[in-house]
Amino acid sequence: FPVTILRNFVFGSLSELETELFVRALSKVDFSNYTDAKIVIKGCSEVEVPIAIYVGVTRLLMPFAAKLKFN
After folding, report:
1. pLDDT beneath 50: ranges in the chain
2. Helix (H) or strand (E) holding 54
3. Global pTM?
4. Structure confidence at residue 21 (pLDDT)
5. How far is 61 from 17, CA to CA, in rounded Å?
6. Which of 57, 56, 60 lies closest to 32 in space, CA to CA?
7. Which strand (E) or helix (H) includes residue 69?
8. What pLDDT was estimated at residue 42?
């Protein structure tokens, strides 16, 4: 019979799962590509982004970006 190997799991609510998926996606981004860039972080989207992700993106971009703006 086939064997399934579980690589990751999240124990919690749907919103905790969504936050974890965003965190995992952000961990793959090379933020040094944004060195000295002027960046606008947009908050309007069809996809609801948890506030913790905006905070995390800001923290990750601050060492590199010349300017950060929120819209």
Report:
1. none
2. helix 51-61
3. 0.76
4. 92
5. 23
6. 60
7. strand 67-70
8. 87
d(CA 35, CA 4): 42
Looking at residue 32, what is its pLDDT? Answer: 96
In angstroms, rounded to a whole number, what is the distance separating the alpha carbons of residues 50 and 65? 22
- 51-61 vs 14-26: helix crossing angle, rounded to 10: 20
Would you say 58 and 26 are in contact if contact means Cβ atoms under 8 Å apart?
A: no
50 and 15 Cβ atoms separated by less than 8 Å: yes
- Give the up-direction half-sphere exposure of residue 51: CA atoms within 13 A in the CB hemisphere: 0
Q: What is the pLDDT of residue 48?
A: 85
User: Would residue 4 be called left, alpha or beta, if left means φ above 0 and alpha means ψ between -120 and 50 degrees?
Assistant: beta
* Predicted pLDDT of residue 35: 97
* DSSP annotation of 18: H
